[in-house]
Amino acid sequence: VQLQASGGGLVQAGGSLRLSCAASGIIFSRADMGWYRQVPGKQRELVAVSTSSGSTNYADSVKGRFTISRDNAENTAFLQMNNLRPEDTAVYYCNAVSRIFGIKLYWGQGTQVTVSS
Known about the structure:
0% of the residues lie in helices and 56% in strands. The chain contains no helices and eleven strands.
């Protein structure tokens, strides 16, 4: 299983970025896809999740600004981040949870998002 995250970068406060997570080796349409973020010295935190049943959930800190979506035909999940704030600066990781033949958790490599004030 591979999860390839991309789309991070440096942006000014108020700007936007779109992260992508391309998945291979899993039945993507049956997996819950999530985005997490981590800053040095802190625990990794959930940002948003898109379940295989079509529901979405967001951390309170990003509600109304971030949107998670997925393209099951392309095996790709996205995180559209608008109105970015300096406190959104972190390494962002994509995550997949497969519930076929047991629960399996997979992580992609991180992509750095830096928001300047």
